[in-house]
Specification:
The structure is a homodimer. Chain A is of the alpha/beta class. The first copy, chain A, has a single domain, classed as TIM Barrel (Alpha-Beta Barrel). Helix content of chain A is 48%, strand content 12%. Chain A contains 15 helices and 9 strands. Chain A has a 7-stranded parallel β-sheet with strand order 1-4-5-6-7-8-9. The longest helix of chain A has 25 residues, at 175-199. Chain A is globular. Chain A binds chain B through residues 162, 165, 168-169, 172-173, 175, 212-219, 249, 251-253, 270-273, 276, 290, 292, 294-295, 297-298, 300, 302, 306, 309, 324, and chain B through 162, 165, 168-169, 172-173, 175, 212-219, 249, 251-253, 270-273, 276, 290, 292, 294-295, 297-298, 300, 302, 306, 309, 324.
Chain lengths: 348, 348
């Protein structure tokens, strides 16, 4: 990789709203199962959570894609469910089945949660950040958490669900209880992100992967308001930390993020046109996205065409090249190489 | 029910772009498992497809919700997968598992499809329409089909999938083959809808339940273009037939339907604000939707509030009250009664 192109300023400059040509690039789930070196590393830990909580392994997973592809940013290797775990709701990952938690449905269930994060439980994550930061060349490190709505959808259902129906139902039937859960997650997430920044993260991203299913009133209450609250609180403690929100499926509701002070960039899923996003978010926002992970998996001429289209469509704005969702485990490594080469060759 | 309120003109007038106060109401999947009389009827047929293909049973299922709730429109009881079935791709429904088909992945698979619909296979559906039409009071009857993209997603995967990845991948890897499949479905669907109108359907709706997952270029090619082609062809044969499209998840891309001549109304899912839909679709379009099926399941004060919000938000436009997706099987019948009463009481 050309070190001039991968210089740290590119990603941070784009976050400040400055157009870069070519745009900086990193990929959601760039550390993960599609990499053979990741699979070898993963085999050293018994469970997925154990893997996340072993700083030597998690830091190495964080660094692997940087070494291989020279991305413009590294992202902490971890999972959004370490937050419920550190709030005392036991989380486990069953192979090929995804996460399992004891679902929260009643006030009694909620009352068993800790009021604040168990910092001892999260210490390994902060140590991972410290190690990765020290080992990284001049590359920004992104920390992250799940947004309250998305994390709550797992905490209520006790597992991943295709439509988040259990959490949506609880929010309709017991809005006061659901609000308590969201508030608890706002507190915990703001604290957690601030600590990540303190430990060496340069930027943090808030993942609201399931925002898209919410009707307008619920979207405002359960997606936008909690993210706004987290950004405000992190900003009190770390006024200059760049924060990215990824409200997947926000579509026509992206505009609701436009007035959040302290939010620097918005991640876009694959379904939105660049122009429709740009129209809703003022120039000060960097736009991050939004190649289809499936076209990266498919590869070939279609991948080139889709890459060029993303580059062209986002060219008028400060753009951070990314996928619209995470890298799929079946993705051939060569396709990622091909993508990075093509983006790096682009000149706007 | 007040027969003056349920008069046939209300639904058809709204389709013509005329505001009605209160708006007409019908619900997607208003005939279905949430009704005890439906479950009793369903028990008379061995398989779900057998049920769809027995005119006496399917016509009765069509009429049941009209008798109970006095909706402003009836919708044919059938399934979108009768089209692949009539194209020679064997379809079966396994209890609690959904549809199963032999997936189409190669040109050889595709070549086994019939070129035109097996009219003998579809004769029972047309007879169902004839029977329901004859038995209905002055209530419009809606026929329907699945949109090519949504039907193709089942034909390729061989089953329902959470993200339609198999069809999206085939479309990326073999766009020419996928185009052939879509074209075959355009031909078949236009023919099928025209025949439904000939058999007594007053209106037809095209369901594109999985439109929302497609990135912009793919949305234009696989969702909008095929629906446009179907509307044009139906219009050649039935120039005055009202046609509704339901591109679920179209969000910022609803505007792409704005210039389809012969399209009278657009169905909206739960996630879009009325204003964002109204902005994209000219006044001549009726807007149909978009109460959350989960709030109908939840019931109570939340249902009333959400109902009022939909009524209020859509009041500036010709509006057909509906859900944003189908009635859920667990929905209490009393909640549907409560909804219909509240909508009928509304005055704009």
């Amino acid at each position: 990789m050309d070190p001039a192109v991968a210089a740290p300023s590119r990603f941070l400059s784009a976050l400040k709203g400055e157009r870069q040509s070519p745009p900086p690039i990193w990929l959601m789930r760039q550390a993960g199962r599609y990499l053979p070196e990741y699979r070898a590393l993963r085999a050293k830990a018994k469970t997925f959570l154990d893997f996340c909580y072993r700083p030597a392994l998690a830091a190495e997973a964080t660094l692997q894609p940087i070494r291989r592809f020279g991305f413009d940013a590294a992202i902490l290797f971890s999972d959004i469910l370490v937050v419920p775990d550190a709030l005392g709701q036991r989380v486990s990952f069953e192979e090929a089945q995804g996460p399992r938690l004891e679902g929260i449905r009643t006030e009694a269930d909620f009352s068993r949660l800790r009021e604040v994060l168990d910092l001892e439980a999260l210490a390994p994550v902060l140590e991972t950040i410290d190690r990765a930061r020290a080992a990284l060349p001049d590359i920004p490190l992104i920390g992250f958490c799940g947004a309250p709505w998305t994390v709550a959808s797992y905490m209520v259902a006790g597992r991943g669900t295709p439509d988040q129906a259990p959490a949506r139902l609880l929010a309709y039937r017991s809005p006061d209880l659901f609000q308590l859960l969201i508030d608890r997650l706002v507190d915990a997430s703001a604290d957690y992100l601030s600590r990540q920044l303190g430990a060496g993260a340069d930027v943090v991203q808030i993942f609201d992967s399931w925002a898209g299913v919410l009707p307008p009133a619920e979207f405002a209450r359960w997606c936008v308001a909690p993210i706004r609250a987290i950004v405000e609180r992190v900003r009190e403690r770390r006024p200059h930390a760049p924060i990215i929100a990824f409200p997947r499926g926000a579509a026509t509701r992206l505009k609701e993020f436009a007035d959040i002070e302290g939010l620097w960039a918005v991640g876009l899923d694959t379904t939105i046109e660049a122009a429709a996003a740009a129209q809703q978010l003022p120039e000060r926002f960097a736009l991050q996205g939004n190649l289809d992970p499936l076209v990266l998996l498919a590869g070939g001429r279609r991948l080139d065409e889709a890459t060029d289209r993303v580059l062209q469509d986002f060219a008028p704005r400060a753009h951070i090249f990314n996928l619209g969702h995470g890298v799929l485990p079946e993705t051939p490594v060569e396709h990622v190489e091909r993508l990075v080469r093509r983006v790096r060759r682009a000149r706007g």
